[in-house]
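Side project, low priority. Logging it here so it doesn't get lost.
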Amino acid sequence: MDFFATITALENEDGKKIFEVMVNDTISFCIRIFIFLFVFYIGKKLISIILSYIDLMSKDRFDVGARQFSKSFVKLGLYIILFLIGMLVFGFKEQSIITMISAVSLGIGISLKGFLSNIAGGVVILFTRPFTVGEYIEVNGAFGEVYKIDVFSTHINTLDSKRVIIPNNVMLSSNVINHDANEYRRIKLEIPVSYECNQKKAVEILENISKTFEGLEHDRRSFINIMEYADSSVNIYFIVWTKREGYYRTRGNLIAHIIEVFNKENIEIPYNKLDVNIKNIRGD
């Protein structure tokens, strides 16, 4: 008890009880922490409401990619504003916050060039629209459907359901092949037939398929011609058009149909064969 009384009796230079000052400072700090967390909680709720409102407002005006980018950009800005408000509520002075922002901005400008270039890349993608969500693109060896475009990166789902995340600055500095940029796509097949079969008949069959097969654009000009004498086959180029929606399904069905018709018409499609002959040689 004497020790506690001694501690509580200590005074600072201003004549105030040190123990009372510590208790008051602790209570004040806890109150500020509570207010900061409360403001942050309310701010998160407000941000969620604002973002949902942005979704409703932009649904009919922008495509999915533009909505995703705008939402992520606004979300980043709102959280920065919320953090600054929280610091003011916590007790930081405006001058201190300005000084801190200047120092952080300088540090970001020096060490996070890639970070800023990703944001700039996202803005360029948003306005130039070299591709949109749902289109199939090929970039940096990755091929798949654009799943999401946000502030920092572009997300691609490959055909085998892998998620490839590519920074936006890489997207701008790389050659991007957009397979769905146009309304129609060409199906280009190199079809081999054997030397022994009737090649003219094969071309006539393919011409008939190009005019009757469901899913092809019969009004657009096709190209069907013998183009090459290969080592074990005569190669026919078969180039037709289809709409970009359902391209791979139409292409696959078309290949299966060509094989089926060729088999019925005795048009042989050569393939590698291995003939094994076994001889029984008797020794004398």
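Brief comment: The mean pLDDT is 79.
Revisit when time allows.
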